[in-house]
Design a protein that fits this description.
The complex is a heterodimer.
Chain A (H helix, E strand, L loop, with lengths): L6 E4 L3 H14 L2 E6 L7 H5 L2 E4 L12 H11 L3 E3 L9 H9 L3 E2 L4 H8 L1 H10 L7 E3 L5 H11 L3 E9 L2 E6 L5 H16 L4 E5 L5 E9 L5 E13 L2 E7 L6 H17 L4 E9 L5 E7 L6 H8 L3 H9 L16 E8 L1 E2 L5 E2 L2 E2 L2 E3 L6 E5 L6 E2 L6 E9 L2 H14 L1 E3 L5 H7 L3 H5 L6 H5 L10 H20 L15 H15 L3
Parallel strand pairs in A: 1-2, 1-4, 2-3, 4-5
Antiparallel strand pairs in A: 6-9, 7-8, 7-9, 10-11, 10-13, 11-12, 12-15, 13-14, 15-22, 16-17, 18-21, 19-23, 20-22
Chain B lengths: L2 E6 L2 E9 L4 E5 L2 E9 L4 E6 L2 E8 L6 E6 L2 E9 H9 L11 E3 L4 E6 L6 E2 L4 E7 L2 E6 L4 E6 L6 E2 L4 E5 L1
Antiparallel strand pairs in B: 1-2, 1-8, 2-3, 3-4, 4-5, 5-6, 6-7, 7-8, 9-16, 10-12, 10-15, 11-14, 12-13, 14-16
The chains are: A alpha+beta, B mainly beta.
């Protein structure tokens, strides 16, 4: 049942589109990009072998339109579609449409996506597979009084979650019965606008839990392995911002138990491809099934760094019908990896999205540093999509070396224009609790209650004051400052003649 | 010798400069240092302040008295004016900062989903004022301080650009 894949359409944008294009190139597969109006000159378009315009900037008129994506696949002759994450990645109808059109969808089957995409069904499947789940209840069709009664039984604080949810959208913590109606309304309206499905359910809200997930990889021949965990406890608005592998608290024994649980639910749901089984881990290290993400995760590179396995390459292999190239006993975690999501956001202003042109953008490099970037200098950060611009992924032989290298890498960034989360990440890398591995999903609200992440020092104040004074001085006097005006010095014609002559004389054919 | 008064993060710096052959002699609040500046581009420079290297990007966005300095991963606003003019202004009793920000401006472009306050409402610091949808997220905009709502410029369904006036306080 091997099916040839020679050309892949990437139904996405930003860093993940670039990431997939790189995997295609490694495999000698032709890559096809799609782009909206505001992405005309985006990095993924420049990187791809072919690129096609698919409409206006709002994703509902471009990246989310099934007909447009399928149309480009037909026109370009793509035999497979990789959805990345977000957009159409967990859309069962789209996966089915690909299959109907004879295009390979790189991901699980439409049935599996539909089952696991519905959190209520996923919880039921997990329970059947023998996985522990967080106490909770459905409230579909209930009136407010009935729902409130159930919420009281589950126990406040409760978490109201979208049945079709993901990425923290359509999710609200409700502290007390008084706030229940408002929380319900807000979660439901957010769910309706984000997923077109306003159904919500309730779950007990665990105090200070960790968010730990297991990467799985399954082929079409019934083989399924787990690639260890990722600790993703550091979150803002229920969205991950820093991830690492391995987790500072997971022992080999716990890893084996969580991994086995993950493989069990994969088997139960006929899972195919790369996926992630998310767990909440209580302070006593008991774990509860949360959900399965039927896609490649944003944070997949930390697993790649510690396992040495290219997950996108393996996804494509599985989609071709190949057998897994690894057995469970081949998987070993080597060293430690940390990912910092670089967002165009203002951390000190509640992580508000920040937009505008990247007037300067220099990224770090050096030993152990990998940057998966979706932008290049002078790109405009559009308002229409997720504001993540890049992922900094750093490897070290142990957690301490990984943290030291992350600090070094963050300090190497030079970004002007939109506000970013770089300074925020730098602060966390010095945080005593982070260094001790004492993490929970309330880490940020507990450690930084007033959203102050970066401390102004006298050194910085003085440096900024001097920089401002020199700027005013040179602008007013119109003088070039000491040294050479590197960027604007015109190259003298005489100098060029001299250089040419020298080239001819010394380097050329005598 | 040019002399400036620079305000960074609430601190005042009295800075005089003297340009020598290849560096500046800078006197900052009475302390002398040697500063070398190499331009790296239109707005970027490499500063060596007593030998310590700082890569800075200084942007002025049209206002002569205001600079934004990007430095060590931070975005630092600096207000700058000629020292003598500043002294005159102070003698005349004119405050340097424009009277406390009484207008709430949109921190991002988006769509107003809900306005939670009305004209004449008394609001407390951090009270939720508006819900704005941007980048597919519902963002709650909270009161920067206590006050009374004097004007409401938007309502549910209004599309806003960054910097648009949303509310005014008293």
């Amino acid at each position: 049942m091997n099916n040839e894949i020679r050309k892949i359409l990437i139904a996405n944008r930003g860093e993940i589109a670039v990431r997939i294009i790189r995997a295609c190139r490694d495999l000698g597969i032709t890559s096809v990009a799609v782009f909206s109006d505001c992405d005309k000159t985006a990095y993924h378009v420049r990187m791809a072998d072919e690129a096609y315009h698919i409409g206006p900037s709002p994703s509902t008129e471009s990246y989310l339109v099934h007909d447009k994506i399928i149309g480009v696949a037909g026109k370009s002759g793509a035999d497979a579609i990789h959805p990345g994450y977000g957009f159409l990645a967990e859309n069962a109808a789209f996966a089915q449409r690909c299959t109907d059109e004879g295009i390979t969808f790189i991901g699980p089957t439409a049935e599996t996506i539909a089952l696991l995409g519905d959190k209520l069904q996923a919880r039921a499947a997990a329970r059947e597979a023998g996985l522990p789940v967080v106490p909770g209840d459905t409230i579909e069709g209930d009136n407010l009084d009935q729902a409130l009664k159930k919420a009281r039984k589950v126990g406040f604080p409760v978490l109201v979650k979208a049945a079709a949810g993901g990425g923290g959208k359509g999710m609200r913590v409700v502290e007390s019965p008084d706030d229940f109606e408002e929380g319900l309304k807000r979660a439901s309206s957010e769910a309706a606008s984000a997923f077109g499905d306003g159904r919500v359910f309730i779950e007990r809200y665990l105090k200070r839990p960790r968010h730990i997930e297991i990467q799985i990889l399954c082929d079409r021949h019934g083989n399924c392995i787990q690639l260890g965990e990722r600790e993703c406890s550091i979150q803002r608005r229920h969205q991950k911002v820093i991830e690492e592998s391995p987790s500072p608290v997971v022992t080999p024994e716990l890893r084996r138990r969580m991994g086995e649980a993950a493989v069990k639910i994969a088997g139960k749901t006929n899972y195919v491809g790369a996926g992630t089984v998310e767990f909440m881990v209580d302070q006593d290290l008991s774990f509860y099934f949360l959900e399965v993400n039927t896609r490649l995760q944003v944070e997949h590179p930390v697993t790649e760094m510690v396992t040495g396995i290219d997950l996108v390459r393996e996804q494509i292999g599985v989609a071709r019908g190949e057998r897994l190239r690894y057995r469970q006993e081949d998987i070993a975690l080597n060293g430690h990896a940390i990912e910092c999501r670089i967002y165009a956001e203002d951390p000190e202003n509640g992580f508000m999205p920040s937009t505008g042109m990247l007037k300067n953008y220099r990224i770090p490099a050096g030993p152990g540093v990998r940057v998966d970037s979706g932008v290049v200098i002078f790109n405009e950060i559009p308002i229409f999509y997720d504001p993540m611009i890049a992922k900094l992924v750093v490897w070290g032989k142990d957690r301490t070396e990984a943290i030291n290298r992350t600090r070094r890498a963050l300090d190497e960034y030079r970004v002007s224009g939109p506000k970013t989360t770089i300074g925020f990440h730098r602060a966390v890398m010095d945080n005593a609790k982070f260094l001790a591995g004492d993490l929970s999903t309330s880490f940020l609200t507990e450690e930084y209650p007033d959203n102050r992440y970066t401390d102004m020092t006298d050194d910085l104040r003085e440096g900024a004051a001097i920089a401002a004074a020199l700027d005013k001085f040179t602008r007013e006097r119109k003088i070039t400052t000491g040294g050479h005006d590197v960027a604007h010095q015109p190259i003298s014609g005489w100098l060029m003649c001299y250089r040419r002559d020298n080239l001819r004389y010394f380097g050329g054919s005598r | 010798m040019p002399r400036y008064l620079v305000n960074v993060d609430g601190r005042e710096f009295d800075i005089s400069l003297e340009y020598r052959a290849d560096s500046y002699e800078v006197v900052l609040n009475g302390r002398r240092s040697d500063v070398v500046s190499h331009r790296l581009g239109q707005t970027r420079s490499l500063l060596l302040i007593d030998g310590r290297a700082h890569e800075v990007d200084v942007r002025s966005d049209g206002f002569d008295g205001v600079r934004t300095v990007f430095m060590k991963g931070m975005e630092i606003p600096a207000e700058i004016e000629d020292y003598n003019l500043a002294q005159l202004r102070k003698t005349a009793g004119i405050s340097s900062t424009p009277s406390m920000e009484k207008t709430l401006k949109a921190p991002m472009p988006g769509l107003v989903l809900e306005v939670k306050v009305a004209l004449g409402d008394t609001v407390a610091k951090n009270q939720a004022l508006l819900v704005v949808e941007a980048m597919k997220m519902e963002n709650v905009i909270k009161a920067p301080g206590a006050g009374i709502i004097k004007a409401v410029h938007v309502s549910g369904g209004t599309s806003i650009e960054k910097g648009d006036r949303l509310l005014e306080f008293e």
